[in-house]
Amino acid sequence: MANWTAKQNKKFEEALALFDKETPDRWHNIARCVGGKSADEVRRHYELLVKDVMQIENDQIPLPNYRAAGSNGRSYANEQRLL
Fold first, then answer.
1. Which Pfam families did the record assign (predicted)?
2. How far apart are CA 34 and CA 79, in angstroms?
3. Could you report the per-residue pLDDT of 66-75, keeping only the tens digit for each?
4. Global pTM?
């Protein structure tokens, strides 16, 4: 599948808010808003998004391993205390 730019993803998100599942020709309308993508590409992108959200909600995606300390050696809790 072709890569999506950050700008296309933003337009995709905005178009999803405009065209709900009851909208006739939803994927064609969203594709027009995104630009450079077909209705099928937009639909597949949406299906992947739904799959990702379901995996996150079902705790099937591991949490990122964030470092406990910042680059200056202070922990997040210590930085919060200082604020």
1. Myb_DNA-binding
2. 41
3. 775 555 555 5
4. 0.68
